[in-house]
Design brief:
Order of helices and strands: HHHHEHHEHEEEEHEHEEHHHHHHHH
CATH class of the largest domain: Alpha Beta
Structural class: alpha/beta
Radius of gyration: 22 Å
Strand order of the largest sheet: 2-1-3-7-9
Helix content: 25-40%
Largest sheet: 5 strands, parallel
Length: 366
C-alpha cells in the first residue's frame, strides 16, 4: 500500500518513457490527436507539454447492465499502442472486470478512491441503469442506481461509454423489461460526455481522456452530449461508397455484382445516413477496416433507440414506424431516394451538419 501514493505522483511522461516510447513516437501520437480533435498543428506542442506533465488521474469505472463489449473494445488491441498505454497509465482504481480485488476489498478500493480524490476523479460508466426493480442488477448488494448516485457525487466529470450508458442501449429496447435508463436521465448536476457505440471505437474513448488530460475540460459536445470532433458528421458523408450512392448504384443482395464491386449498401439497410460516428475515418483494428468496408451495412449503433429503428436489413426508405417526414426515410424507393438525396440542396446539408440536425422534406420544399 505504501507504493500507491508514490506511483500516483508519476506523470504520464514518466510512464511512457519507462515503457520505451520514443520522443518521435510520442509527438506523432500528439499530432494524430490534434488532427482527430480538429486542432491546428500549432497545438501539437501544447498537447505534448500537457500530457507529459499530467498526473495520473483517478478513474472509477462502473459497469451496470452491459455485455463487457466496451471494455473488450478498449483492451483487445491488435498491438500495444500509445492509446493503450495512456489508458493503462491512468489510475484505474475500480473496474469490475479488470481489478484483481473482489468482494469487500473491491468496494473498499472504490470508497478509498472516492475519498482521496473527491471532486477530482473521473467516473466512467458503461451499461444502463435499471429502475424497474433494484434487484435486476446489483453489485456487492448495492443497486446500480444507488452506486451511481453515491459515486457520481464526488466526480469531476462522467464519461458514459457505450450506447447503453449513453442512451439506454439494448436493455432499453422495447419493451424495456428492466426499466433501463441512461446515465444522463439520472445525473443532472455533473458534466457528462456520451461516447456511444456498441461498442465505441477505442481511440474515441482514449481521445476523450486525452482531451481531459490536456485541457482539464470536456470537449465540445453536440445536442445529445457526444464530442463533436468524433460525432460531428454522419458515416454516410464520410463513407468511401458515397459516390455510388450519389450515382444510384446499390447492391441488391450480399452476393450480387454490386456487392462485389463495392456499391452502396443503402438498399441492404445501411443506417449510415442517420448515424454520426467516426467509423468511416478512424476505423477499427488499428485503422484496418469498418463494417461497411467489410461488406456489411451500418447498424446505427451510436444513435439513440437504434435497436428499435426497424429491421437492420430494411432500407431506410421502407420504415416500420411513422417517420415519413425525414428525408432519409422517404417512401419514394431506395434508388430514387438515393439519387435525390445525394443531389438535393447540398448547401443545406452543410448547415444541417453544423447544427447536427436532420434535414426534413419540409426543409427541402421551402
Amino acid at each position: 500500500m505504501t507504493d500507491i501514493p508514490e506511483g500516483k505522483d508519476e506523470t504520464l511522461g514518466d510512464v511512457l518513457r519507462q515503457r520505451g516510447i520514443s520522443r518521435r513516437s510520442f509527438l506523432k501520437f500528439c499530432a494524430t490527436t490534434a488532427s482527430m480533435m480538429a486542432l491546428p498543428p500549432s497545438m501539437i506542442p501544447t498537447i505534448a507539454h500537457a500530457l507529459e506533465r499530467a498526473k495520473k488521474p483517478s478513474v472509477i469505472w462502473l459497469s451496470f447492465q452491459e455485455c463487457t463489449g466496451c471494455t473488450e473494445s478498449l483492451t483487445r488491441a491488435h498491438s500495444v499502442t500509445i492509446e493503450n498505454l495512456i489508458f493503462d497509465s491512468i489510475s484505474l482504481d475500480y473496474h469490475h472486470t479488470l481489478q484483481a480485488a473482489s468482494g469487500h476489498a473491491a468496494e473498499e478500493a472504490r470508497m478509498a478512491a472516492m475519498e482521496e480524490n473527491y471532486g477530482k476523479y473521473l467516473l466512467v460508466v458503461d451499461g444502463s441503469i435499471p429502475l424497474g426493480n433494484p434487484g435486476y442488477s446489483t453489485i456487492a448488494g448495492i443497486s446500480n442506481y444507488d452506486m451511481l448516485m453515491e459515486t457520481a457525487k464526488g466526480a469531476a466529470a462522467i464519461i458514459s461509454v457505450g450506447t447503453c450508458a449513453a442512451y439506454g442501449g439494448i436493455p432499453h429496447a422495447k419493451p424495456n423489461p428492466t426499466g433501463a435508463v441512461s446515465v444522463g436521465e439520472i445525473i443532472k448536476d455533473k458534466p457528462i460526455i456520451n461516447v456511444p457505440g456498441c461498442p465505441p471505437i477505442p481511440v474515441v474513448i482514449t481521445g476523450v481522456l486525452t482531451h481531459f488530460l490536456t485541457f482539464g475540460t470536456i470537449p465540445e459536445l453536440d445536442h445529445i452530449g457526444r464530442p463533436k470532433v468524433f460525432y460531428g458528421q454522419s458515416i454516410h458523408d464520410r463513407c468511401y461508397r458515397r459516390t455510388f450512392y450519389d450515382k444510384g448504384q446499390f447492391a441488391e443482395t450480399f452476393d450480387d455484382e454490386g456487392a462485389r464491386k463495392g456499391w452502396c449498401l443503402y438498399k441492404l439497410g445501411c443506417k449510415g445516413p442517420t448515424t454520426y460516428n467516426a467509423c468511416a475515418t478512424t476505423k477499427w483494428n488499428n485503422g484496418t477496416s469498418f463494417p461497411i468496408e467489410s461488406g456489411h451495412p451500418c447498424l446505427g449503433c451510436s444513435e439513440p433507440e437504434f435497436w428499435d429503428g426497424g429491421g437492420f436489413y430494411k432500407a431506410l426508405s421502407m420504415p416500420t414506424e411513422d417517420i415519413s417526414k425525414t428525408v432519409i426515410y422517404t417512401a419514394a424507393g431506395a434508388v430514387a431516394a438515393g439519387v435525390a438525396i445525394g443531389a438535393i440542396q447540398k448547401g443545406r446539408k452543410n448547415s444541417a451538419v453544423a447544427s447536427h440536425s436532420k434535414t426534413t422534406i419540409d426543409d427541402l420544399e421551402k
